[in-house]
Design a protein that fits this description.
Layout: E1 2-7, E2 11-17, E3 25-31, H1 40-56, E4 65-70, E5 74-77, E6 80-83, E7 106-107, H2 109-115, E8 118-123, H3 124-135, E9 144-149, E10 153-159, E11 162-163, H4 195-199, H5 201-208, H6 212-220, H7 224-248, E12 252-256, H8 258-261, H9 264-275, H10 280-283, E13 287-290, H11 297-304
Parallel strand pairs: 1-4, 4-8, 9-12, 12-13
Antiparallel strand pairs: 1-2, 2-3, 5-6, 6-7, 9-10, 10-11
The structure holds zinc ion.
Zinc ion binds near residues 176, 187, 189, 191 and 197.
Amino acid sequence: MKACIDIGGTKVAVSLNTGAGLELLARRSEPTIKTGTNDALARQVMRMVDEACAEAGLPPDKVQRAGVSSAGPFVLRNGMVELSTPNICGGLAGPARGLPNDWITAPIEAPLRRRFAEVRVENDAVSALEAERRWGALQGVDDCAYVTWSTGVGMGLCVDGRVLRGKNGNAGHGGHMFVSDNDQALCGCGNVGDVEALVAGNAVARRFGADAATLLQKAKAGDAAAIQTVDELCRVMGRALYNITAILDLQRISLGGSVFGNNIDYLLPRLQGQLRGKLPALTDGCELVPAGLGDKVGDYAALALLV
Ligand SMILES: [Zn+2]
């Protein structure tokens, strides 16, 4: 029995898997706990696993493997992952950020290891990449990436068949690459003018006063100003996709996330247009495709860590 745990800045989702097939049992979701001591999030996760076990009629000790797909970045303490996520840990940016805690980190791996025999924690985009490589649009592709264009922008990267992790498991934080001289856009990470600050769902709402869904709806209806704004978003996102293609010599990039996933027909050709013709030796052999798992990528991301 496996516990599949998905930790985001807004929600925590937990489900169980018997180990046979992809079925997720007793799935539940709650707002991410951000009050109390900094082990509150780990305690929330373990309580939710126990509740899932109760719903499924299982003794909790039957669940000994835990896969955790979490928003990053991570820091390591004694080799164990702690979350240093700007949307969870209020101590990073201070009281001005408005979070109800002063956490610098939220320990996750160490407390879970006291509860489960096996624990694997990965960045959510890395987990989604593993799910796409196993069951989705990246099967059989050794040089590939998964890119989510959602509330934030995240990337999981794979070269020569090896998923990149980096010194703290933070490889793929491409949402925080600088791609513009724009000095108006402040990212939650503190950078000004990085990809996430310019094009992420939360940035669109902040910069243009309309959420991404409304903006895209207007563009599709032919509103000239909205079309121009979306073209500009695609120019920035397209540069980010070009950059990782140039650096990693990628063959295929799978795209997901709510901003992209709800507007595939409109956004995909515009993003493809940003790669086409730029240094063809690098870009001609790279295709952009929608995530094969569609809006289920997140559900299977944690499960992919335990296969
Ligand atoms: Zn940033």
